[in-house]
Structures are given as structure tokens and as C-alpha cells.
From TrEMBL:
The keyword Manganese does not apply. Belongs to the enoyl-CoA hydratase/isomerase family. Signal peptide: none annotated. InterPro entries: ClpP/crotonase-like_dom_sf, Enoyl-CoA_hyd/isom_CS, Enoyl-CoA_hydra/iso, Enoyl-CoA_hydra_C. The keyword Ligase does not apply. This is Enoyl-CoA hydratase/isomerase family protein. Keywords: Lyase. Pfam families: ECH_1.
């Protein structure tokens, strides 16, 4: 990997994926997008990994798609390359994915953050969809996911003016889970990851899948889907272990089976 640092066991059961193009503020070029996809695919298949944290550095999570690489492209180039569909594949990642965001999360960087299941932000984090200032618009979920996350009015304002919002405002709007001082955002993400990694990985995946269904279907179908996943957890050893541990007044040990 040229632009990614991957630590599969940064903590027990928790992998860390770090974008590493610091000079370009982690601008997402084609290579970096493909590396993120490939890394997540490998971590999804690695049974020892229960939760993944994706992060950048203090100054930038990612300042968007690489403008210099995109500038001269034609519509047909963009269509044939279809790299933003690659970014969209990240949505299929089945394990809990936590974004630890500091500094700029702009354009494709904001879209990448929004594909995460949970977000921990540092106080310096800024979120924005500034594509309009470049004469274009979001292309990897920025209109769709942002509107679902923060509502139509705020999404319209952000996408049409290109203005950024602060970590505090993102928190108030429900875009991020928590905001912590800049020296603590990664540690806080690890704390959150550890508490999820201690749960049944089977139940965590099924629960994630069920919540994501909310955005893809209507209530009746979503409730049906949820119920089936709930029943399915009873096929796992982890459910037997979790309930036995409660009855026996001890801590459960989930094995992911
Ligand atoms: C390529 C980028 C970049 C980007 C920053 N850089 N963002 N290169 N693509 N998206 C480069 C700069 O050119 C510069 O390199 C170096 O990173 C540092 O950036 P500066 O501008 O000098 O830093 P600063 O003054 O602190 O400003 C930071 C910034 C600004 C506000 C984040 O860089 C900025 O506005 N960047 C563009 C943000 C943006 O428009 N993102 C949306 C992209 S479109 P050099 O070599 O010049 O020093 C997009 C479409 C997505 O994401 C479609 C679907 C995925």
C-alpha cells in the first residue's frame, strides 16, 4: 500500500486504517481510493478483526477527491474510471466502521466519513461539501447521505454554498457521535471500538445491517428484516453465551460463532 497505513491488530480485535498522503491533506486519488477498498475487503475477511477505525491525521481526515488529478478529465473519463463507485463499495463493509476525524473532512472526505457507522471528531474537525466552488457537485453520496444525516435545509445550505461546519455543529446536527479535544480523538475512537469489539461480532454485524436497512426501505419491510436478523442471532453460540453469562452473573466471552 502506497498511501495507507494498516495495523490489523492495533488493539485486540480492532484494526486501524490510516490515510497517509499528508502533504496533499489526504486528497483521495484513484490509487488511495482503491487501497481503501482493498484494505477494507481484507479486514472484512479477517476473523480476528471485529471493528475497524479509519482515520487521517490531525490536520486532515481527507480534503476531498484529488482536484489536480480530476481537473482535466472528461465526463467519459469519469464514467469509465468510475472511482467513486469504488468509494461506494465501502458501504458494503460488514463490520462496525468508526471514523476518527480531525481537521478537514471535505468533499469526498466528508462522503467517506459519512459511510462510517460512527464518527468521533476532534474539536478542530470541519465538515463540508465544497464541490460547488469548483463548478461541480458531490458525487459519492454527499447529497443523499448528508440530507439524511442533517436534514434537507442544512444539506442544501452546505452543498449550495460550500460552507464548512464545525465539529460542534456537526455534533449538534447528529452527524458525529462525539467531539473531544484534538489530542484525544483517536484514543476516544479506540475506547468506542473496544466496547463494540467486546460484543458478539455476529450480533454486531446483523444489527449494523438492520440499521442500514432504514435508509433503503420502508418501515414494514425494515421491521421484517430486523426480526429475521434477531431470530438469526439465536443460531449463534454467542447468544447462548451472552444469556448464560447473564443468568450465571458473570462476564460473557463472545467468540464470534
Ligand atoms: C488535491 C489538494 C486538495 C484536493 C488540498 N490539496 N486539497 N490537492 N486535491 N482536494 C493540496 C493543496 O493543493 C496543497 O498542495 C496542499 O494540499 C495543502 O493545501 P493548502 O490549500 O495549501 O492548505 P490550506 O491553505 O490550509 O487550505 C486547506 C483547504 C484547501 C481549505 C482544505 O486545500 C482546499 O480548499 N482544498 C480543496 C477542498 C475541496 O474542494 N474538496 C472537494 C474536492 S472535489 P500544494 O502542492 O499546492 O502546496 C471532491 C469531489 C468528490 O471531493 C466526488 C466524489 C468522491
Amino acid at each position: 500500500m502506497e498511501f495507507l497505513l494498516i495495523t490489523p491488530q492495533a488493539r485486540p480485535g480492532v484494526a486501524l486504517v490510516q490515510l497517509n498522503r499528508p502533504k496533499e491533506l489526504n486528497a483521495l486519488n484513484g490509487q488511495l481510493i482503491r487501497e481503501i477498498r482493498d484494505a477494507l475487503q481484507a479486514l472484512d475477511a479477517d476473523e480476528a478483526v471485529r471493528v475497524v477505525i479509519i482515520t487521517g491525521n490531525e490536520r486532515a481526515f481527507a480534503a476531498g477527491a484529488d482536484i489536480k488529478e480530476m481537473a482535466g478529465k472528461t465526463a467519459v473519463d469519469m464514467f469509465l474510471d468510475d472511482r467513486f463507485a469504488t468509494l461506494e463499495q465501502i458501504r458494503r463493509f460488514r463490520k462496525p466502521l468508526i471514523g476518527a476525524v480531525s481537521g478537514f473532512a471535505l468533499g469526498g472526505g466528508c462522503e467517506l466519513a459519512m459511510t462510517c457507522d460512527l464518527l468521533v471528531a476532534s474539536e478542530t474537525a470541519q465538515f463540508g461539501q465544497p464541490e460547488i466552488r469548483l463548478g461541480t457537485m458531490p458525487g459519492a453520496g454527499g447529497t443523499q447521505r448528508l440530507a439524511r444525516a442533517v436534514g434537507k435545509a442544512k444539506a442544501m445550505e452546505m452543498v449550495l454554498t460550500g460552507e464548512f461546519i464545525s465539529a460542534q455543529e456537526a455534533h449538534r446536527l447528529g452527524l458525529v457521535n462525539r467531539v473531544v479535544p484534538v489530542g484525544q480523538y483517536l484514543e476516544e475512537a479506540f475506547r468506542l471500538a473496544a466496547s463494540i469489539a467486546a460484543m458478539s461480532p455476529v450480533a454486531a454485524r446483523l444489527a449494523k445491517e438492520s440499521i442500514n436497512r432504514v435508509f433503503e426501505t420502508h418501515l414494514e419491510e425494515g421491521l421484517h428484516f430486523e426480526r429475521k436478523n434477531f431470530y438469526l442471532t439465536f443460531a449463534s453460540e454467542d447468544q447462548k453465551e451472552g444469556m448464560a453469562a447473564f443468568v450465571e452473573k458473570r462476564k460473557p466471552e463472545f467468540k464470534g460463532r
